[in-house]
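USER:
Working in pairs, take the chain set out below, taking as long as you need, and write a paragraph about the fold.
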Amino acid sequence: MSSPNRRPVQPLHGSSLVIGTLALSLAVFMNVLDSSIANVSIPAISGDLGVSPQQGTWVITSFAVANAISVPLTGWLTMRIGQVRLFIGSILLFVISSWLCGMAPNIETLIAARVLQGAVAGPMIPLSQALLLSSYPPAKSGMALAFWGMTTLVAPIMGPLLGGWISDNYTWPWIFYINIPIGIFAAWATWSIYHKRESAVVRLPIDKVGLGLLVIWVGSLQIMLDKGKELDWFNSGEILILGAVALVGFIYFIIWELGDAHPVVDLSLFKGRNFSGGVVAISVGYGLFFGSLVVLPLWLQTQLSYTATEAGKVMAPVGILAIILSPVVGKLLPKVDARWLATTAFIIFAIVFFMRSRFTVEVDATALMIPTVIQGAAMAMFFIPLTSIILSGQPPEKIPAAAGLSNFARIMCGGIGTSVVSTLWENRTTLHHAQLAEHTGVSNPAFGESVQTLMARGMPEPGAWAVIERTLGIQASTSAATDIFWISSVLFLSLIALVWMTKPIRSAAPVDAGGAH
């Protein structure tokens, strides 16, 4: 053990605070951007490397699996290495792995590089929270979280737009090469500001069994979620095996971690009502939000004939109010109960998804964008207050572990939400199509009239039937999407109860936890 009695660091001031905030934000931006930038580039990557698009999706999955496993290790790694050294090491390894991704000559090398990239990226987000909170005085803790929240809001929006633009105008390796200058600057700036603010190092033994169980159950779950839709879920023996391994591994993981003297994941954090209530609320809410990010653009492109660029433009305005209101929320947080802000976020989310549940096949771009713009306000009041609640009352040495575990739960729920929503959309589409098809056929006068009208325009009868089938498909898919939006609206309202299970300490808690005083 070294420096166990070192004095808590003091807040930063002036240019040091500005540069420190910028460096931490850029590192997070690079990290979050990379989790979404490859999505729209999969066709280009798979075509260039001579593999199918299905194989190409492993470029995304490999990053997600490695990232999900490494995030909860943040607390233990921080104790062993120190906050600043671990954060800068993560940035530099991320830069190296990004270069390896761009240089990959085949899909196997690219996947291996993405695994490394995801693994080293894990500690960056929770450590950026901890370092940022330690940089601001207690009264400004909300503002610190606001700056951090703006970064995490903008990056997922920029990812698909930037990835598509780079793939169309340059070559896909540049989606990884752009990380190199950003990462080098972030690492240099972070070291110059924070190298004298290193946390105490404690040489704890590694929980090898817990780490092995974590890899087994998280890896099995992520692969199951990724392959489930393709393999028809639990009608597939492979999915059944993966599900069983994930469940048994998870149960053994919980039992082992609760009994181990030095657990790799500190599950005792869930004993605190602020942590447990806040983590469940932010994770489920993020799962619902992330699921909509999948369904909405897919529905626009596959059913309403929007291009990828047009769909991106419809989704992009979500960042407008999010960016404008994040600093406002940061200033309000010390003065207003964080639970009221989180409640307002969930109410706005519910209204947004209810508005989307009223969409029809004739919906225009303006009607699509209005709830998207409003959603930005909800996002500004979602991440910042809930992160404040989660970290409220945590002692300094627990901040990295708490931030790491909460981010792990949120990332996992994002993946689960995507799979559940995609499957539900497909199943509801099939159901609605079957119900609509009951009203077709020669015995239905309206159907016969529609066929005759199309034939009168010079279309052959098989063509007329095909047009009607396509119309039914679009209507069924739209009804399925609006079903999901309505269900999401109700679930967002139900999450308010979780928020009021918590009892956060006003403003001082997160920063005290960061070690400012």
Q: What stands out?
A: Residues 399-437 form the longest helix (39 residues).
